[in-house]
Write a structure and sequence with these properties.
five-stranded parallel β-sheet, 9 helices, Rossmann fold, 199 residues, alpha/beta
Length: 199
Amino acid sequence: MFILGITGGIATGKSTVTRMFRDHGAAVVDADAIARSLLAPGAPVANTVMEAFPECIEASDGAVIDRRLLASRIFHDEGARRLLESITHPPIIAELTAQIRNYRNNSASGLVAAEIPLLFEANLQTLVDRVLVVTCDDSLQTERLMARLSLDEMEARRQIASQLPLAEKEARADYVIKTDAGLADTERQVAELALLLGF
C-alpha cells in the first residue's frame, strides 16, 4: 500500500486532484471530511468549539457552527486560530492516523490519496510515503478564493498570506502538480504521476 499525501494552499485545486486520483482507482482519506464530521451537530468536538466560540453559532439554529464565520474569525485572530487548532487537530490527526493505518494493515497493494491541507504545518509527513503539492499562480489562487467565498481581493490575499507559502511547500514536495492550465492539463499530470507510481 502506497500512501500519497496531497497538500497545497487554499484554492489551489487539492480536492480536484484528489478526485482525479480516486478516478484512477485510489482510495481516499480526506482530512477536511474528517473535520466536517467532527463539527457536525451534536459531536463532542463541535460542542467544545461552540463553547469556545459562541459568537460563531448560527443564529437560526443554536446547535450548528457557522463554518464561514468561524473561518473568518481565526484568519483575523492568531490566538483564536491556535485555540481552535488545540481543540480540533488532535482528534483529526487521530482519525487520519487510524484510517491510514487501516489501509496499511488491510491492503497488500494499492494507492491511497490522503488529502491533508495542513500536512507540513502539522508535521504529518511521517504518515505518508510521498508528498504531492498542488499549486497554481498566486493571482489565479486569489481569483478562485474570491469566487469560492465571495471575498474581496484584500481579504482573499490576507487569508492566503496566513498560510505557509506555496513556494516553501513546493520546495519540500516529492511531486508538484500545477493547476493553472485547466482540468485537462491537470488530469494529464495526475495520470502521469499515477503511472510513475505504478498505479
